[in-house]
Amino acid sequence: MDGGLLLRKHLVLMAFFLLVISGCSNSNAAPAIEKPANLDYLNDYDSNPQVTDDRSLLEVGQSVSDEKGEATLKAINQVNKTYEEGPIKLTVKDMKIIHLRPDYSLIDYFHVLTQEEEFDFVKVFLEIENTSTEKMNFAPIALIETSTGEKLDWEKDIYLEELNGEIEGNEIKKGNLGFILTSTEDLEWIEITTSDVFNKDEEKIIDSQKIKINF
Questions:
Q1: 126 near 91, Cβ under 8 Å?
Q2: 195 DSSP 8-state letter
Q3: Torsional class of 162: left (φ above 0), alpha (ψ -120 to 50), beta (otherwise)
Q4: In the chain, what are the domain boundaries?
Q5: Would you say 100 and 118 are in contact if contact means Cβ atoms under 8 Å apart?
Q6: CATH says 56-214 is which class?
Q7: Following CA atoms 101, 187, 157, 139 in sequence, which dihedral angle do they give, to the nearest 10 degrees?
Q8: DSSP label at 156?
Q9: CA 211 to CA 193: how far, in whole Å?
Q10: What was the pLDDT predicted at 44?
């Protein structure tokens, strides 16, 4: 066989093997992180006037800045589970641990709860539906407890989006509740205790419920 032809065949085979190896190498590359598909619940949410909008924070380590400060995501659980308490359907959409550096203009707002100029907090996005035609009274988070031993009640909420209290018949409320945490190191879970459900006559009709969310 002609030596030149043999050399050309050899070079073609080498090029083919290099392409195969390259393809294998690319197939073993780290897969892209999939973002949660169902984020429609965030579409018609009005950004909170005091707390940096965290809707774009979906991967740990991401940060976002706006006129209210800078927020960095430390942990996330896209819970998306619904819990029923009689006529009340409570859906926990997501829970995040966020490090917040508020803008200087908002430091006084947070000083009621902390003297720190930046801090960690847990944020829960909730949807509450009253499936009855009667007015009910309900608080989605009456108490929150962490695996590190912190306990905070509904009065420590930093979002103030009026999710607690009266909910009219067939009404749906949604938004955030957030609580400043002293420590988030080695945090394994957070447990929410809802309030009891009361009817329009302020009579208890359903007991409170505990919801534990892991990180």
A1: yes
A2: P
A3: left
A4: 56-214
A5: yes
A6: mainly beta
A7: 150
A8: G
A9: 6
A10: 82
- Least confident span in 34-43, 59-68, 123-132, 144-153: 34-43
Place of tokens 């819970």: 79
Tokens 């394994």 locate to: 188
Given a contact cutoff of 8 angstroms between Cβ atoms, the answer to whether 93 and 202 are in contact is: no
pLDDT in tens, 46-71: 899 999 999 999 999 999 999 999 99
β-strand 88-102 against 81-85: which pairing, if any?
antiparallel
Q: What is the pTM of this model?
A: 0.81
In degrees rounded to 5, what are phi and psi of residue 2?
A: -55, 130
Closest CA to 47 of 125, 128, 127: 125
- For 7-60, give the DSSP string: HHHHHHHHHHHHHHHHHHHHHTSPPPPPPPS--GGGTTPPPPSSS---TT--ST
